[in-house]
């Protein structure tokens, strides 16, 4: 545990002094963190703030580009992030899981060199039942010479991310961040209103006995996934030779935070329901930022057949299968897919 006297601001200034971030990226992270504090307050009010339930008027739900019914807090969180990032001059544009297309920073404001992508409130189906949710963000460079970015400019592989993070709104509000030099956790001191460094250099144990998957999809999984999970469930009498525990919060931010904290493997594999869309989880807003955080913490992240961060995006809302967490366990899951694809019995 790191002494709680290093604020996010001080951490970023020291990263800048060390040449690991520039002033513009430092401002970007501070602005996103401030927006997350505002979202945390809105989430924390719950029914008292009239923010539960679905967005849209009487009788008609508001459906987002993902085809999902938007929650009021999805819209609130999205608006908070749009407003906070519009005027600072650090962004050329931004893209949200909740918006059909990306949005250049309005002409009335100066534009910067970065592109911000975010899932403003991930896991929002959990809001009404008071389970942890979170904001996920990813930062790319705006391509050289591009002053008005379009959707195409965001289609960069995850290795191009210069920063990524999430803020989990749970018993604590915790910001987890990487600027490419380790993964670090900052816990919100609500009395002071500052994020304070609580873990410098999170490390994911290489091995694990804990897996996270929505097991209700088991009958829809591909064969290698059926076999992989079947062997996990067989425990120490089975081929893995050890017993496993299972967790599934259905809020990626909460599941990934547990894995960054104590290890594990998170998987949302292809199944026959989501396969036509390429998977369930979004590459640019969920898989890539989480994969960078996990790799920076010594873990691994894969589609089951390819390193996640090397996937070339083909669309702003591209979906992918996801396996991420403890390195040895991700490699085990990948080996089941590899031997299946090689035609092994
Ligand atoms: P399911 C939340 O909607 C989300 O995008 C992730 O946060 C979460 O891991 C997953 O979907 C949950 O999916 O099918 O279990 O509801």
Task: Write a short abstract of this structure.
This protein is 29% helix and 21% strand. It has 345 residues and is α+β, with helices and mostly antiparallel strands. Helix 4 (223-234) links the parallel strand 9 (210-212) and strand 10.
Which secondary structure elements does this structure contain, and how are they paired or packed?
Layout (H helix, E strand, L loop, with lengths): L7 H10 L5 H23 L26 H15 L4 E6 L6 E2 L9 E9 L10 E9 L21 E7 L3 E6 L5 E6 L4 E6 L10 E3 L10 H12 L10 E3 L4 H11 L2 E4 L12 E2 H14 L3 E3 L16 E2 L1 E4 L1 H15 L4
Parallel strand pairs: 1-3, 9-10, 9-11
Antiparallel strand pairs: 1-2, 3-4, 4-5, 5-6, 6-7, 7-8, 11-15, 12-14, 13-15
Bound molecules: 6-O-phosphono-alpha-D-fructofuranose (P6P).
């Amino acid at each position: 545990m790191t002494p709680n006297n290093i604020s996010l601001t001080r951490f970023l200034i020291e990263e800048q002094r060390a040449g690991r971030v520039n002033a513009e990226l430092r401002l970007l992270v501070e602005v996103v963190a401030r927006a997350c504090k505002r979202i945390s307050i809105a989430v924390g009010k719950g029914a008292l703030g009239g923010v539960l339930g679905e967005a849209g008027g009487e009788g008609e739900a508001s459906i987002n580009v993902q085809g999902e019914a938007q929650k009021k807090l999805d819209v609130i969180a999205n608006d908070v992030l749009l407003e906070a990032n519009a005027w600072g001059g650090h962004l050329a544009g931004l893209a949200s899981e909740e918006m059909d297309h990306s949005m250049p920073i309005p002409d009335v404001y100066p534009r910067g060199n970065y592109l911000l992508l975010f899932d403003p409130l991930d896991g929002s189906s959990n809001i009404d039942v008071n389970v942890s949710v979170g904001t996920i963000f990813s930062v790319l460079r705006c391509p050289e010479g591009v002053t008005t970015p379009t959707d195409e400019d965001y289609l960069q592989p995850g290795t191009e991310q210069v920063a990524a993070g999430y803020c989990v709104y749970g018993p604590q509000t915790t910001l987890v961040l990487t600027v490419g030099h380790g993964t670090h956790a900052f816990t919100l001191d609500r009395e002071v209103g500052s994020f304070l460094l609580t873990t410098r250099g999170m490390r994911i144990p290489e091995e694990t006995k804990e897996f996270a998957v929505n097991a209700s999809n088991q009958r829809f999984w591909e064969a290698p996934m059926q076999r992989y999970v079947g062997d996990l469930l067989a425990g120490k009498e089975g081929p893995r030779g050890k017993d496993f525990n299972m967790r599934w919060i259905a809020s990626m931010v909460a599941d990934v935070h547990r894995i960054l904290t104590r290890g594990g493997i998170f998987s949302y594999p292809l199944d026959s329901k989501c396969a036509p869309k390429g998977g369930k989880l979004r590459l640019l807003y969920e898989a890539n930022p989480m994969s960078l955080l996990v790799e920076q913490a010594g873990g691994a992240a894969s589609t089951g057949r390819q390193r996640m961060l090397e996937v070339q995006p083909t669309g702003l809302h591209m979906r992918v299968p996801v396996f991420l967490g403890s390195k040895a366990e991700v490699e085990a899951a990948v080996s089941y897919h590899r031997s299946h694809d090689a035609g092994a019995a």
